[in-house]
Amino acid sequence: MTAVTDRVKREKAGAAPTGDARRDRWRKHRVQRRAEFVEAALRALDEHGPDLAMEDVAAAAGVTKPVLYRHFEDKADLYEALGRRGTEILFSRLVPAINAELAPVPRIRTALDAFFAVIEEHPNLYRLLARGTFAGKPADSDVVAEDKELIATALSTLLGDYMRMFGMDSGAAEPWAYGIVGMVQNTGEWWLDRRSMSRDAVVEYLTRIIWAAIDGLAREYDITIDPNLPLEANKVVQLRSEQPDAG
């Protein structure tokens, strides 16, 4: 979690008002410009793939490389900005899906579909972040691993809340959460490379696997959960990208 904490601290420091109106307006302008360049980088990723160069990003933004470097210290800085944008996109889809007031199986299916929808729409962004390099330069942070840690930690809390609600041993919540997140991530990477089945199909298979584990464990405690009936309590998670990109 150290990398996540450091990233959030840097963003909060950059976003804090200085009390100087002129300086704050200029900082706000720089933040807006950085955001525009990040969106241009996403377009360049769609066109050139994860091997894109800074020249490709500059061309997509309609500026020269020197202009781009006025807003990003180096390639690693742009990589981290892309990582933050990817986290925002993922969490904006995933959190509402995880917290949906649905029956267990539809809720699992909705959450999985949210993840697979994001990597389907932004495959090259995911490949870039998973690779951990930009234009041949190793990145200073592993955004995919950081997000995996955040999601697994939140899911552990969610599972623990439900297990305690049903009078079950919640000690299994953490390894179970990390196992689920690892399985989904690995399956997602396999699916992006192979595309041997539709998104609906892979989501359905994973839904069945995850539900079978939940149902099997519950039955060991003589608990029967209707997969198509909303639970009495809708436990939720708080999972979000802490701050917008700061220039």
Automatic annotation (TrEMBL):
Region (Disordered) location: 1-26
DNA-binding positions: 53-72
Keyword set includes Cell inner membrane: no
Keywords assigned by UniProt, alphabetized: DNA-binding
InterPro entries: Homeodomain-like_sf, HTH-type_TetR-like_transc_reg, HTH_TetR, Tet_transcr_reg_TetR-rel_C_sf, TetR_C_32
Basic and acidic residues: compositionally biased ranges: 1-13
Presence of keyword Protein biosynthesis: no
Domain spans labelled HTH tetR-type: 31-90
The name this protein goes by in its record: TetR/AcrR family transcriptional regulator
The species this protein was found in: Amycolatopsis pigmentata
Record lineage: Bacteria, Bacillati, Actinomycetota, Actinomycetes, Pseudonocardiales
